[in-house]
Specification:
Helix content: under 10%
Number of domains: 2
Radius of gyration: 27 Å
Number of strands: 23
Oligomer: single chain
Structural class: mainly beta
Largest sheet: 5 strands, parallel
Strand content: 35-45%
Shape: elongated
Distance between the termini: 73 Å
Length: about 240
């Protein structure tokens, strides 16, 4: 890479070998103005000197932004001048790239069967024949409410046009409940017409939910005891 060169939204999965200046994505960065953004490498890397998982050698440095390499498949624990080395599991975890700010709904994607590109993210434009997941985050944090007989909770969604309602399954009585890290413990009601089969929900949970008692008011009314909580067709407690 030379002056003002930019590599953006790219990946390299093939093996690479050489004598020197060998990198999973770039072998040699010559100028400090070089920029690598939202890119990754996974192929095996081998050489004798100037070898790195993402970049082999960067004499004057470079700006490496939100870019990664697989330390297991590349066989390299280090890279020149930046990038982040991750395990294979982390590289195949959508959260890694969501947290890094990658565009996972129009540019990058993971096919619904998670087979394309061996489970690594792929560029959608290269695989128009595949159906890719819609990705959104569901964030729950400390909250409280007065008992209302439901398990509804307040959640923050990265795409508010997908979900109508969220419940924390099974917890609707008075008490304090720690939020679970298991997505299956949350009930999601999707908006009509949305295909929930092609979604990947990223759960971010912290804290707990506290449900407090609802104040009851005793209404003034008279009746002969009949074992029911109503009088003249109206409840005695509200």
């Amino acid at each position: 890479m030379s002056d003002l060169a930019t590599i953006k939204n790219s990946y390299a999965r093939g093996s690479v070998s050489g004598d020197r200046y060998v990198g999973g994505l770039v072998g040699h960065v010559e100028k400090a103005d070089a920029l690598i953004v939202n890119s990754y490498a996974t192929g095996a890397v081998s050489g004798n000197s100037g070898v790195g998982g993402l970049i082999g050698l960067a004499i004057f440095g470079a700006d490496i932004v939100n870019s990664f390499w697989d330390i297991e498949t590349t066989g390299r624990s280090t890279s020149a001048k930046g990038g982040t080395g991750l395990t294979t599991a982390q590289m195949k975890d959508t959260k890694t790239f969501f947290d890094a700010g990658w565009d996972l709904n129009t540019l990058w994607g993971r096919d619904t069967n998670n087979v394309q590109n061996n489970g690594y993210l792929d560029l959608r434009t290269l695989n128009s024949g595949f159906t890719f997941n819609t990705v959104f985050s569901l964030t729950v944090s400390d909250q409280s409410k007065v008992y209302d007989g439901t398990a509804n909770i307040t959640a923050t969604l990265s795409n508010a046009n997908v979900i109508d309602n969220v419940v924390f399954t099974g917890n609707k009585n008075v008490g304090t409940y720690a939020f679970s890290s298991t997505l299956g413990d949350y009930g999601l009601t999707y908006k009509a017409g949305f295909n929930s089969a092609n979604t990947e929900v990223l759960l971010y949970n912290s804290g707990s939910e506290t449900i407090t008692q609802k104040a009851l008011s005793l209404l003034s009314n008279n009746k002969v005891y009949d074992g029911t909580p109503t009088a003249n067709g109206k409840p005695l407690l509200v």
